[in-house]
Amino acid sequence: MRFARLLLYRAGLVSYQSRIIIPIMDRRSSQQRTPSEPPRRSPRFLATQVSVVTNDSEDEQNENPLLQKKPKKRSRSVKTTTTNTAEKKPRTTTKKKKETRDLDNTETTCLPRTREDSLKEYSFVMGIDEAGRGPLCGPVVTAAAIIPTNIAGITDSKQITKEEQREELFERILQSPNLRWAVAVIDAVRIDEINILQATLEGMRICAQAVLQGQVEDYPTQPEASIQHKGCYIVCGATDAAGKFTTLKPVTEKAYALIDGNRLPKSMPCEAEAIVKGDSREFSIAAASILAKVTRDRLMHAYDALYPEYDLKQNKGYPTAFHMKAVRDHGATIIHRRTFAPLKHMEMDENGKIKVQSKD
Predict the structure, then answer these.
(1) Where in this chain does the record put each RNase H type-2 domain (predicted)?
(2) How many whole angstroms separate alpha carbon 66 and alpha carbon 64?
(3) b/e sequence 56-75, b meaning 16+ C-beta within 10 Å
(4) pLDDT band at 108 (very low <50, low <70, confident <90, very high)
């Protein structure tokens, strides 16, 4: 009977003033409730429920999910756009070429002259730096430069990873107008005598003296490197206003030296100032670092031809695994620093052959 009434109600032929909820598991428990009473939760059974809801209350319809009308599915409107496939260009994945630094752009690649520009009362301001303090063999090289002209690409030589780029900058520095420069080479024997710090400071003082006085007393001037000479030698030069090589004449005006590091050499020929990390902050110090670095690299290439067993062209004298194996097999040469570890822990004969190696 109730099922028939439900069908008539859904067909819109009958209406009721009350809601009747009849669980299938217990039909006797059905009760009539007035619309003012709150709806009771029907007991949860395994079977479904049959509900009758009047049209007078839409809220009661919403409460019973069995009597809710399913909304009609809206057909999605697909936008059809006519595109000319012939005009579409295929996507091409092209790798961006790595931009190379333009050496002619001085505004973006040239270090500033912050400290140098503040020293207006001095006629000449030179930068001084070194290369080769850490390697196991080879000399330590110091350089000083008074370079009035800005050159693109001048920065700390350690930040210039390509050797050919350092070589190019080296040549451009030597061809710049009104240049004064000097390079001092302190060999391994001298380093072992006075230690690497004192050898470096000594080389810096000699360079400053050569740049300002035009000559160096007590030390010979040679045009190229020679491993037969013990101690130190210096190479210096200058250019005129056209950038051509000329004689390095003494300076009578006031001069000032900017030195990379935190220590100053003794007996400097002019006033000086130490700047920590100056090779990455001041233009003149960076230029001196390039002169020192390229000079030492060229020396190591020459030493590699004399001692090919040690691969000095590649390791530049640093104690790589290949280099240390060569030392154990062939011994140490005259350009090796005997006071540097691990050589200082090895006992050698007069020819550099290792006799006994300590466990250290």
Answers:
(1) 123-352
(2) 6
(3) eeeebbeebeebeeeeeeee
(4) very low
DSSP letter at 336 equals B
> Binding-site residues for a divalent metal cation, please?
129-130, 260
In 3-state terms the chain splits into helix, strand, coil percentages (rounded to 5) of 30, 20, 50
- Sign of torsion over alpha carbons 212, 215, 219, 225: positive
Find all residues with CB under 8 Å of 208, minimum gap 6, and list them: 126, 128, 144, 182, 257, 265, 268, 269, 270, 272
Answer for the pair 283, 306: CB distance below 8 angstroms, yes or no.
no
Report DSSP state, residue 14: -
In contact, 282 and 113? CB cutoff 8 Å: yes
Burial of 263 (0-12, 13-18, 19+ CB in 10 A): exposed
Looking at residue 118, what is its pLDDT? 95
What sign does the CA torsion over 236, 308, 357, 342 have? positive
pLDDT, tens only, 224-238: 444 444 578 889 999
pTM value is 0.67
In this structure, how many other beta carbons lie within 10 angstroms of the beta carbon of residue 334? 16
Identify the band that residue 349 occupies on the pLDDT scale cut at 50, 70 and 90.
confident
Instruction: Return the sign of the alpha-carbon dihedral for residues 80, 86, 87, 92.
Output: positive
Which H, E and C letters describe 108-146, residue by residue?
A: HHCCCCHHHHHCCCCCEEEEEEEECCCCCECCEEEEEEE
Locate tokens 């599915």: which residue?
A: 73
Instruction: Tell me the sheet residues that pair with 357.
Output: 346
Pairing type for strands 271-275 and 346-348 reads unpaired
Q: Tell me where in the chain the CATH 3.30.420.10 domain(s) lie.
A: 106-305
- Cβ proximity of 187 and 227 under 8 Å: yes
Give domain 106-305's CATH architecture. Answer: 2-Layer Sandwich (3.30)
